[in-house]
Amino acid sequence: MNTAQFLVKSDLKFVDKASYTWQTPSNIALVKYWGKSNPQIPKNASISFTLNNCHTITTIDFERMSNAELGSESDKKAEFTLFFEGKVKEEFKPKIAEFFKRIQEYCPYIFDYKMTINSENSFPHSSGIASSASGLSAIARCLMSLEQEINPDLSLAFINKKASFLARLGSGSASRSIEGPLVVWGNHPEIEGSSDLFGVKFPYKVHSVFENYQDAILLVDKGEKQVSSTIGHKLMHNHPYAENRFKQANENLAKMSTILQEGNIKQFINLVESEALTLHAMMLTSNPYFILMKPNTLEIINKIWEYRQKKNSNICFTLDAGANVHVLYPLDEKEAVNQFIENELSKYCQKNQYICDATGLGAKQL
Ligand code: DP6
Fold first, then answer.
1. What is the pLDDT of residues 95-114, one digit of tens each?
2. Which residue from 168, 165, 230 is spatially nearest to 2, judged by alpha carbons?
């Protein structure tokens, strides 16, 4: 695998101070990533819709350190202070410190700066919405702005590619949060340019029915998950169905590619729901086994099926590693489905809360 392309040249033109602000979105996988090997290499390719309203906004202030402040070569570590929604967040620091460790080979310039990171999410904290994808992609994108400043030769295509590469080293799904509206991560023979190292925009023309696709996120359970994604991924090692699952996911991605191009929405519904339930089936059949769905997750799924049948609708659901339900529907059903959610589904949500979102185009500099 060609990781050498992401190393930096030696004659960087350092600046004393810089500050960048990026807004990067969350994403929702249609074909799921579940299972990986080191270093953050997925066991199968995945594809997601990039979201628009659920995002993180991060500013990083970089201040160059004097020679006296720089640590010795052997005990170098990234110097950073982290504020989340205006407050120092010590508990988020280890994950970010680990991220900086993983990327230091590719971004050695981070050691030359003191970094002050200010981050906030558009969605309520601990809503159960994965914030690692938007959070880590935002940091990665800010770092790439600095890299561009100290190495002005870089093209935008390369910057996006490396931002996704870096984000992946923080959290796999974060690699799919730089561009949009559809991103593939993981090497796949039928997706041109796809790679295990970074996400790529879905390279084929997508049927208009999937334009501005809607995603309402029903917040069923906002509590801390009993089993984190990191542990869930690990349980795919020695999982009795793992190899078949990885093969199936790659086959499903090939099918999804055709569906997206041809606009076959019935097949889309079938594949998306099957992927969601298979992801949770992997959890049910892990050892130790675990269940992330809640009773209201199932209530909502049944209501969606009833509604689809009764109204001849194209609504469907997907799930990530949690109890929340993502309700997916085409733009032309927006009004009717929003009514249905408000009237029939919001009662299954904690404090009746849900977030209306739609596909988006990826990272934005503010
Ligand atoms: C169920 O990207 O959160 O959302 O790489 O360990 O950070 P790490 O895991 P993470 O896993 C996401 C899994 C998923 C499916 C998906 O987004 O494809």
1. 999 999 999 999 999 999 99
2. 165
